[in-house]
Amino acid sequence: MRFSECVHFALSNLRDMKLRTALTSFGVTVGIGALVAMVGFGQGLQKNVTESFDKLDLLNSITVLPGDSFSRNPLRDPDEPAPQEPRRKGASKPLDDEAIQRLERLPGVEMVFPEIRFPALVGIGDIEELKLVQIVPAKITSSKIVKLEAGRPFDRDDEDAVIISRTLLRRMDISDPGAVIGRKLRLSSLAFDFGGFDPGNLAAIFQGGRLPFKKRDYEFTVVGVMANLGFMGPTPLQSDIFIPPGSARRIEKLPFTNIWDLFRAKDGALGYSAVNLRLTSPASVDAVKRRIQDMGFSTFALVDQFNQIKTSFVFMDMVLAAVGMIAIFVAALGIINTMMMSILERYSEIGIMKAVGASRSDIKKIFFVESSAIGFLGGVFGLGLGWAVSRIINRVVNYFLAKQGIPFIEYFRFPWWLVLGAVAFAVMVSLVAGILPAMRAAKVDPVVALRHE
């Protein structure tokens, strides 16, 4: 029997069992759809994170932390105490201006700027918000780290200008980022003022007495609005309002952000909680990290976290694929059931084919073609189902996230290998499921089958 004749027999049998074929194919469709959607979700997340690191040029960044037990992860809340870490030789050195000068001289370092943030009351018009203001050099605002939705970066480090985030505008009920460009922003900071303060009468503070602080007001021009990034990840910019270092020098402010800065103080000097380094190339990260650690400081490199994220995505894809495989396994049981029922209904037909000269391999080919055709149909329609479901989920999720000011994000990705692999996998599973029915059909005795009729 020629292979074309086997295909003709198989397709004819499937057409004769339209409802059963459709239901069995639908089981494969659901399984492949679930598998494709889950793997596509994992691929989408990986693509978004990878592109965010590349676009923001984060892989050539290093955060330097004090080498003592009070050093913190830059991703941790600034008011949260850090876990105890073992001390190393040289850990008592403060992260001060002298340390910054040493870091600037390291080979491969392009720029060094400390992480300086101070609390302030900021307002545009009649609306005010209490925020942490971060000091950022003009060169950083012109880099890939800052993605402006409106306006421009700082022209110079002594410009009386600010860049604010889209999140801050949303909290101020301002929907148009371009409407604030050129407007004045009020910034009120607190500084120590011991004039008239009696340190020997501390009880007066808790009885409504005068606190040793003074409030100072400043005015800046809004020159830019930084866009919200859905997968921005950890960056040196962790605030909603940014000012250049030159303008920050004239602001009277508290020399610390939280109580942990006081614990980090060495010989009365506060030092910096963290210093950010920009390197000339990601290839310099390991060498610069070793030199910094030899100086007695701790380091946090985003490239290391990126490698950990990629490893995590491998495990996540495996878990998602395993969940989808459950549906495929159920669909395979449906194929076996359909093919076994087909043997019982076509028992006499199989006997006649063998009586007129069909071999066992011919019978197996017919059943294998039937099962693979079911798998192919289920795989193709499964791709469509997975794509349609992912579109719906993506739209719904982005609809709600848009209300939070987060831009549209494509959470699913369907690379060519996933599309072709899903159909091929569906056919392969169907062929495996058809092995037992094909072997049972090939063993049918034509004499018994004709007598059965």
Topology:
Elements: H1 3-16, H2 18-55, E1 61-65, H3 97-104, E2 109-114, E3 117-124, E4 127-135, H4 138-141, E5 148-151, E6 161-165, H5 166-171, E7 184-192, E8 213-226, E9 241-243, H6 245-248, H7 259-263, E10 275-279, H8 285-294, E11 298-301, H9 302-345, H10 347-355, H11 360-402, H12 416-433, H13 435-442, H14 446-452
Parallel strand pairs: 4-9, 6-8
Antiparallel strand pairs: 1-10, 1-11, 2-10, 3-4, 3-7, 5-8, 6-9, 7-8
Describe this structure in words.
This protein has 453 residues and is α+β, with helices and mostly antiparallel strands. The chain has two domains: 3-54 and 309-452, no CATH class; 61-280, no CATH class. It has 14 helices and eleven strands. The strands form two sheets. Strands 3-4-9-6-8-7 form a six-stranded mixed beta barrel. It has a four-stranded antiparallel β-sheet with strand order 2-10-1-11. Strand 3 (117-124) and strand 4 (127-135) form a beta hairpin. Helix 2 packs antiparallel against helix 12 (416-433). Mean pLDDT is 78; it is low at 69-91.
